[in-house]
Known about the structure:
about 400 residues, mainly beta, Porin, two-stranded parallel sheet, 18 strands
Amino acid sequence: xxAQRIVLNGLLSLFIFTTLAQGQEFSxxxxxxxxxxxxxxxxxxxxxxxxxxxxNGAYNSGNLDVHRMVLMFGYxxxxxxxxxxxxxxxxxxxxxxxQAFLQYEIAPWLKFRGGLMLIPMGIINEYHEPSTFNGVxxxxxxxxxxxxxxxxxxxxxxGVFPTAALSYQLYVVNGFKGYDGEAYxxxxxxxxxxxxxxAESVMSSPNLTFKVNYFGVxxxxxxxSAYMGNxxxxxxxxxxxxxxxxxxxxxxSVVGLSMIGMDVRYNLGGLHLRxxxxxxxxxxxxxxxxxxxSDLGSSLGGWYGEVSYDLFHGxxxxxxxxxxxxxxxxxxxxxxxxxxxxxxxxxxxSDLTIGLGWRMARGAMLKAxxxxxxxxxxxxxxxQFNMGVALWF
Length: 393
């Protein structure tokens, strides 16, 4: 019943947004670079945050962080062949490659891609430039359920059908790492720690992901996405296929994940609406938990809805924007569990975020918001005040 309520609540929120909405196609840095006519293109984004936990009767140190600084480089070999890359510096001390793929245009509606690519799930995973979303931090649905920034190595096809107002992505990729001597999947974090990020990735079986977007009504974009496959394990290495005991042990270190997602974005003048719902079914979680000593759920899911309005919209003397917003999200990494796994109510969480953004220019913002975090496992809630600088160019 809890799993059904998550899906129904999320679908209801998306239905409410959709009945209000009319849409268009949105873009991110990679798509802008692909469309650019220059041979070499450079872009990037940055996020600098201040997070201040708040509690009654206790002092809390705030956290100041250059959360991420990203440089993007694109190179056009000719009109059909392009390379897109994204290099991220996190917390000033960690370096990651978030995208690195080659694209070849076979036809206007059929383009091959190969390399390290973002999984097309939800909104933020592909559109994560900090000046494109409200709030200092990304939604937690896109942290614990999707989980952003989710990228893996693979190959596939993408394209646009303008007359039908449809775009699509279809990729075969490696999956999450589930086990290599330690468990990467858990009830607290879901699949987040299993992201391989293209760093010496292990692959024991291929996974499939796809997304279809509709942008045929002005201001509206609707997305339907799916992901299916198994996690990856190193325990298969060198195992004789006739050694049933070793094969069974390796099988216990793997779970299957099937995830669906729906998202909607709508702009009407100064009004902006967003909604997203994601739900994932996990197979073999009972055997995995017993083998790895973990508490992974047999399903996980979440949804959020957000409303914002640009107070300066339509005022000619203001080239900037002042955008108040409110976002509510609910997510549960223990939406259901196998009988041998104890259900942890503290993994059923909800967040309320109320904030304000000042867009000084396209791609340059100052942000501030206040968040209230609740979960079913405690009667107390946590609060946090955030401020941030967001850049995108």
